Amino acid sequence: MLDAVGRLVPFRARGFAPRDVPWASVATLVGVVLLWQAGASAGLVSTKFLPAPAQIVRALIDLGISGELWLNLSISLQRLAIGWVVGTVAGLALGFAVGLFTLARSPGMAIVSALFPIPKIALVPLFIIWFGIGEGSKVITLAFGVFFPTVINTMAGVDGVSRGLIRMGQSFGLSRAAIICKIVLPGALPAILSGFRITTSTAIILLVAAEMIGAEKGIGAFVLSAGNLYDTDNLLAGIVVLSLLGLAVSWVLGRIERALLSWR
Beta partners for 2? Predict the structure, then answer.
């Protein structure tokens, strides 16, 4: 671009547009693991209390061969999926109702404001009393923890939609359903998907807590059992599995965001 006298003007509008650099993420994690292994090999890190990555990998391989890893992981994934879906569906329903309808807004936000600050882990014993020691209490714990952030993010996304676009749709004679589907939902989708990143992490945390309190199988129960036996190799192996689970969920959500928000 040239100015009035024909001189080249440098382009200055490059900021505030961060990009994902996949290789940097991988390099960071690999670097941390290599430093950890080097510290353990040099004796700077006590492998009695913090096993080296090589020991954790061996533990994971042994657990995979024995089948114990897949058994606990499959049970945890089933609980995670059911609890997250139930909490998300209920949260989306109330979030849209609060964001769109006056009659639902004040009562809905009163319930959310009163119950959201309660630590969900503290309610696990109560849910066990109400729903028993089986799967019901664990699913309800996850759903309860996922529900409130979903409501808040959905309501915020709906509130953030430009009212000018809504009025334009009304002026063109669009029905309420068409306005919600074609204007409100696409406009609120970025906030909703960002909320999914929060709720999936919350669900994993609550899953581990619920399994530690009242389960015989599952990654949380496995980690607790290994800790009670001072089996740090398997304890760290379970924690690594949870970390990999979080990374996998984050990757899937990233692909979903890229597909659904390609218009941005």
Answer: 8
